[in-house]
Amino acid sequence: MRIYVPADAAARALGADEVAAAVRAEAQRRGIDITLIRNGTRGMIWLEPLVEVETEAGRTAFGPVGADDVASLFDAGLADHPLALGPVEAIPFFARQTRLTFARCGLIDPLSLTEYQAHGGLSGLRRALAMTPEDIVTEVTESGLRGRGGAGFPTGIKWQTVLNAKAAQKYIVCNADEGDSGTFADRMIIEGDPFTLIEGMVIAGLGVGATRGYVYLRSEYPDAIRVMDAAIAIARDAGLLGPSVLGSDRAFDLELRVGAGAYVCGEETSLLNSLEGKRGEVRAKPPLPALKGLFGLPTVVNNVISLATVPVIFQRGAAFYRDFGLGRSRGTIPIQIAGNVKHGGLFETAFGMSLGELVNDIGGGTASGRPVKAVQVGGPLGAYMPPASFATPFGYEEFDGQGGLIGHAGIVVFDDSADMLRLARFAMEFCAVESCGKCTPCRIGSVRGIETIDRIGRGDADAIELLTDLCATMKDGSLCALGGFTPYPVMSALQHFPDDFAATTKEAVP
Amino acid sequence: MPADQTPSRDDIAAIIADHRGMEGPLLPILHAIQHAFGHVPQAALPLIAEALNISRAEVHGVMSFYHDFREAPAGRRVVKLCRAEACQAVGGAAVAAEVLADLGLNWQETTPDGAVTVEAVYCLGLCACGPAAVIGDRVHGRISAARMRALLAEATP
């Protein structure tokens, strides 16, 4: 009998290791022969630890399971039990998704290359190996894939620039420095299906003529580091990486590098400096990393989800992928629903679902049961959107039109107890802590921003104009998104929740 | 968490030698030294500078830029509490305040007996099960101050 207990960090944080140990012990005690698989997560975090049992009718789920529940689960013959949820893929939150990038996440043993291939893995790469670099880049361009890391730049155009650049060495760099609050898609895919990232990077290498790659993974994700490291070793042993990719005459190898706790290294030029062994300071653009990137050589810098989506595009074709979505936002987007929400987790769907449907219908509203006050979309640099904006469809241009951004597609829900002045202050504080220091609007502006918000908090309404002016300076004058986008949470909080900034005496938050 | 040891010149030189052949070896060297000794001792800086043919100031500049690298060993247990927005949305700030008050610490401080260091972290990727914390290398979701007390009592040697 096959039993699945996730080893994803979120499941582990909720006791999955203890559940796995209890399942093993209980099976042994009863003399039941089981195979325990530590899969990734299906992404329904409120049901974690989610235990799945393979039956003749498919995989059936139980959750959230505590170690104390395991004996009674076995008593019930791993069938009829109060924690039974039925077939896992029929759970409404799961059934409503279109899983392309995350199709295998939670389904397979993340480190089994055999299972990976049994579920469609490597078929995209095999197809790419028979294509010319030009055709590979055209395929990505035609899929409409845009960078899933936040900027939304068309991936095919970036690849084309690197393909056209002449150099003895080119690089593929995977930006796995997912530091945005409310986002965990990169962590989930790396922990749950790391080979899809490797496959995507190999295809990128074939497309642009790069033979070396780096995965720059943040140090705050020890589980992801361990899985990625193991996956690279397995891929190399299997000939998926190395001098002869899958027995072809093409070479591609990659290396894992671990960050050192600097949020700004998620910015691509900071990341490149960090990889080179420098302070993670932002570089002015131009030159573009596509032309002068790692060690001054042409480099593709793509986010984890962008690269992990490449295999399915090659497996099923650009047109298949492009047919999902809305406007210029093509394909699917893994939306991370988090914060004060009833059904938090990862929901992959075609672009176009409205924010309100995601929060209230999919997410089930707040976990506290209180009214939703605001939703921060796109990480700590994303705008706070009020329920009045809930009709906004999930798409790059549509969010931009509402003064927001979708960023890495994290949604953080707040109930009516949220104090928007405090959150605006926190955004400035975060910018001050994490600024690389290279440009003045970000380095100094964030510190002045904290002081100015404190003045407003003390009842000085005149400081509101000053804050607005300061935010405009940061937005226009900062070198990168850290300083440039901090005004989004600050100004959106001020604009949509003026009562929280009204002249009352508020204690300044330390 | 590695033990607090005073590394010898040879120990440090051996780690540097292991990583010198990499492209951009500085961060991997700093990580390896910290992994081995729990911190990056001052004595390591001139050795790294010499091996990589960069100035000592440059090594210091890089090391001090990143939050992860320490000049001195941390407490026997390092507790990282998430301060980011998703955890704030579910009461993370109040939990953190209570944990700090319990221990009599501010952020980034260590208890006088060297048992616990508390650090702020801005996102552990556990945003759908916050408030989140890490003790040593174990992640914990939906923490409360009471749960942290219990976990710390278990974890503190």
UniProtKB/TrEMBL annotation, chain A:
SMART domains: NADH_4Fe-4S (SM00928). Keywords: 4Fe-4S, Iron, Iron-sulfur, Metal-binding. GO terms for molecular function: 4 iron, 4 sulfur cluster binding; FMN binding; metal ion binding; NADH dehydrogenase (ubiquinone) activity. Signal peptide: none annotated. Coiled coil: none annotated. InterPro entries: NADH-UbQ_OxRdtase_51kDa_CS, Nuo51_FMN-bd, Nuo51_FMN-bd_sf, Nuop51_4Fe4S-bd, Nuop51_4Fe4S-bd_sf. Residues 421-466 form the NADH-ubiquinone oxidoreductase 51kDa subunit iron-sulphur binding domain. Its cofactor is FMN; [4Fe-4S] cluster. Pfam families: Complex1_51K (PF01512), NADH_4Fe-4S (PF10589). Belongs to the complex I 51 kDa subunit family. This is Formate dehydrogenase.
TrEMBL record, chain B:
Keywords: 2Fe-2S, Iron, Iron-sulfur, Metal-binding. The keyword rRNA-binding does not apply. Its cofactor is [2Fe-2S] cluster. One of its GO terms (molecular function) is metal ion binding. PROSITE patterns: COMPLEX1_24K (PS01099). Pfam families: 2Fe-2S_thioredx. The keyword Iron applies. Gene3D superfamilies: Glutaredoxin, NADH-quinone oxidoreductase subunit E. [2Fe-2S] cluster binds at C82, C87, C123, C127. Binds 1 [2Fe-2S] cluster. Belongs to the complex I 24 kDa subunit family. NCBIfam families: PRK05988.1. This is Formate dehydrogenase subunit gamma. It comes from Paracoccus jeotgali.
